[in-house]
């Protein structure tokens, strides 16, 4: 959605007394008039019987963000990107965060990069579906022979990790 605003710096010196009427006229532009203005680079309006020719320097045309979309402009080019995060994308992001946290735990524990590990992740509603869907990805990226959801955390080497501001318990242990 495009909006148009007057540029008072260029219009003021030329049309001082008519500025309020010019501003109101610009505010009343339809979306079609805004597009036509962008294409031609000028637009004529009649204010109090006086013809006023507006140029591209006399206005600022901006694209408003559409809910769920990110909008960017460069001259006449406008690009809108759908930034809605689907469940699939959210689950994949959570899995990637786990890979990062598990790799950090491996390093902190002094494990060799070739050591096989077992990963136990707290069965938390926030991460459950992500771990179920992406357990093999997490395992392949961290050299885990097993990635499992559990509620049993009797091991001493349990860590709290933060995934999207949710704290989840994780145990990373070397096999053998």
> How many β-strand runs?
10
CATH class of the largest domain: Alpha Beta
- Straight-line distance between termini: 61 Å
Largest sheet: 4 strands, mixed
Low-confidence stretches: none
Q: Compute the number of structural domains.
A: 2
Return the structural class: alpha+beta
Tell me, what's the shape?
A: rod-shaped
Percent helix, as a range, is: 25-40%
CATH topology of the largest domain: hypothetical protein PF0899 fold
Radius of gyration: 29 Å
Mean pLDDT: 89
Q: Supply the CATH architecture of the largest domain.
A: 2-Layer Sandwich
Task: Order the strands across the largest sheet as they lie in space.
Answer: 8-7-10-9
User: How much β-strand is present in the residues?
Assistant: 35-45%
Strand and helix order: EHHHEEEEEHEHEEE
What is the tally of helical segments?
Answer: 5
